[in-house]
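Replying to the earlier thread about multi-chain prediction with a worked example.

Input:
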Amino acid sequence: MTLRIFVPSDAAALSMGANAVATAVQAEIESRGMDAVLVRNGSRGLLWLEPLLEIETPDGRIGYGPVAAADVTTILAAGAAGAHPRKLGRVDAIPYLANQQRLTFERCGITDPLSLDEYSVHGGLKGLRRALDMTPADIVKEVIDSGLRGRGGAGFPTGIKWRTVLQTEAPQKYIVCNADEGDSGTFSDRMLMEGDPFALIEGMAIAGIATGASKGYVYIRSEYPHAFAQFNRAIAVAREKNLLGRGILGSSRDFDLEARLGAGAYICGEETSLLESLEGKRGQIRFKPPLPAISGLFAKPTVVNNAISLATVPVILAKGGGFYRDFGMGRSRGTMPLQLAGNIKRGGLVERAFGLTLREIIEGFGGGTWSGRPVRAVQVGGPLGAYWPTSLFDVPLDYEAFAAKGGMIGHGGIVVFDDTVDLAKQARFAFHFCAIESCGKCTPCRIGARRGAETMDKIMRGERVVQNIELVHDLCETMRDGSLCALGGLTPMPVVSAMEHFPEDFDRGAAHRAAAE
Amino acid sequence: MLKKHSPHFHDDWDPESARGIIEQYKGLEGPLLPILNALQERFGHLGDPAVRLVAEILNLTRAEVHGVVSFYHDYRREPAGRHVIKVCRAEACQSMGCEDLVGRLERALGIHLSETTHDRRVTLEEVYCLGNCALSPSAMVDGELLGRASEEKILAAVGEQA
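Result:
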């Protein structure tokens, strides 16, 4: 049997030299005349091990990582049974992976991302085939029953959005996938689009059938050129194999989709800005109401869902809403693909049912900091998420539990900082980022962000610290309550949490006084 | 920095090929971003003639097209250097010392962020998140992603010695 050797084409793997490894593998296969084939898979999400090379054996896939091109000759000479310093053993037995519950990322890193046959063999298309035999209302009900909430960050029940679109009559409706994954510390949309793109295509097709939409758009940020290229290749395969187009999978239903590239604007991750951008305009947010579900893209009823939400739909339809709902805790049902990032020893993607604590994730999976210094702070939920100290590490991953402590899960990004972090700098950055990315439509965000950064500068210089901190609190209240969207409305979250949990970093007056004496 | 009206400004501007690009995409729903992306990819920037031509063919005002071009960080009104280095300055990369990396690159290249070297060889820019946050700090050099980026790695990618 032909031996299969895997080297990921995921952008993170490429960033560590995966293409050079792949070239070396190909050269070795040819020069040794091996009966072997190189497969460019997605990433398993064990990113500190990239490039992760795998050799398939009857006893499972044997991994090596991180691999350099120079290691390839000795790895292939030793063979999967032999010893090698880079050998990791069976990849699926590595605790980081073995301790996960992969539903959305079930196939990512395992299959050839562009082989629809392999997708199908590994459980793909079951959900869509089942949906094609169901009424739209039943599909929507299945998604509502699953308890799936928007994985982009807002956590709004996905099925409820679908129901509104289904119930709104219109000659044309749209499914829009938000893949404008701008939060620092997140990469799950990217990994999925590169590693298992058919899951997203299938999820969007199911959404189309459920709501009566025949056209979909995937809005991918321009910082993801590899994901955009890979997703377009997947669309071409899907059209050729009738997963997209007229009469999908031999049914009477039509659904097609198009990937669109952004042009660098964090705000386009906000759903109404994204719609404006797709229409070819400045990405300025819209007033709500009307909701996009009623009047969205080109004023037509539009489902706008995050890529992970949509890619989770196939498993829900394949195994039933109840199966998915049985994972998780409280009102946070199912699994969450978390992304461990920043100053972390073992960074990567961890998909687990809701309910795990931050400590279990950061210490258990992550193994502490990359620098080896103590963890001091963690920011969960992207640039608009709270900065937390280690004393909050026993809070379980759950939308409500996080909100109760003044934080949010957002899109599941966890950025770890060691004890060299200056939280006053981080708070200033939150304002600065908001100022750079504000669409300019509302005053609290457009002006507030600038005044906030200036006031933080004063605090950091030790000027009237007590009064200026009070001023920042006041400004944060205005931004939170007065901004039109989450950018201005949530910028206070990192700022206020940093001031609350790390007051010593803001008390520059004391430091300056000491220096003056 | 390159002056706005330098002789290089519209060097490779080719109205016929630009028209072809615009015609290719103008049938799309919401064609403006795909057109601007394609024009910038072809010509490296979106100068006044590009803005005028897009406005004319799509029947928009130049102000509308300019408004879109100026809104998005990616669009350039002037050409960049032959190599473009984008260094991520978002939180995950901050936690791994990207500010220090930016400082080193600025010193090595003798320019600040958003500037191009005098020989027009390298443009240095900031970016907020490349989605490679488990392998920070990250940078993108001419569209290629670099993880665990260092001054040496980045300068080697543009053919400079650290």
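The CA atoms of residues 11 and 159 of chain B lie 25 Å apart.

Feel free to reuse this layout for your own posts.
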